[in-house]
Amino acid sequence: MAGGGLVTSPPELPAAGRRRIHPPGPAAAGRPRRWRAAARPVQLRRQAGYLGLYLTFCPAMRLLLLLPGFLLLAAPAARAQAPAAAESEAVKQTITRFFEGMRRGDSTVVRSTLAPGAVLHTITTRTGVQVGTEKVSAFLKAVGTSHPEVYDERIRFEQVLVDAQLASVWTPYQFYVGTKFSHCGYNSFQLVKLAAGWRIVHIIDTRRKDGCQ
């Protein structure tokens, strides 16, 4: 070249010695994505394994995870128990009113708790086991007739069973004439829910003087 300068050019490499650099094609560009996609399930399995170990050695966390399910199951049961409790209370109120009428000597109150055709039975054991029937009219007359002493039957609700319009109630009792103890036993009530509310359709009781608390 003019000016005496020495200009050198890089030597040409033989074709066999050249290293060709290819731009990243679709296959090369996709390789990192495939690697990440393949690694993701591994990471998820690893995380699931850690979670399983954590739950295994942490009972409190297991309870916290199960608690929402328990609450969902308990909610319908709680809603179902509310009406049942209300019906049981209404049944007990009818029986309580029956005995309040007896104590007050008010046959009208007692009659209001009885269903049409109500039956009264008593089991006696003086001469073998016998079932006596008392007419409702005679019972109401005895309650409503003036008497100097209060007929005080003290009961305790031991069991109240309700299904739809039927109720069965089991009550131990102690009967007092005024302040004097007379006898004790158990009452079994059968009630039916009519349009006017719960009414007594059957009472059967036992009576004894021994073994009373």
From TrEMBL:
<dbReference type="InterPro" id="IPR039437">
    <property type="entry name" value="FrzH/put_lumazine-bd"/>
</dbReference>
<keyword id="KW-0472">Membrane</keyword>
<feature type="region of interest" description="Disordered">
    <location>
        <begin position="1"/>
        <end position="36"/>
    </location>
</feature>
<dbReference type="Pfam" id="PF12893">
    <property type="entry name" value="Lumazine_bd_2"/>
</dbReference>
<keyword id="KW-0812">Transmembrane</keyword>
<dbReference type="InterPro" id="IPR032710">
    <property type="entry name" value="NTF2-like_dom_sf"/>
</dbReference>
<keyword id="KW-1133">Transmembrane helix</keyword>
<protein>
    <recommendedName>
        <fullName>Nuclear transport factor 2 family protein</fullName>
    </recommendedName>
</protein>
<feature type="transmembrane region" description="Helical">
    <location>
        <begin position="50"/>
        <end position="73"/>
    </location>
</feature>
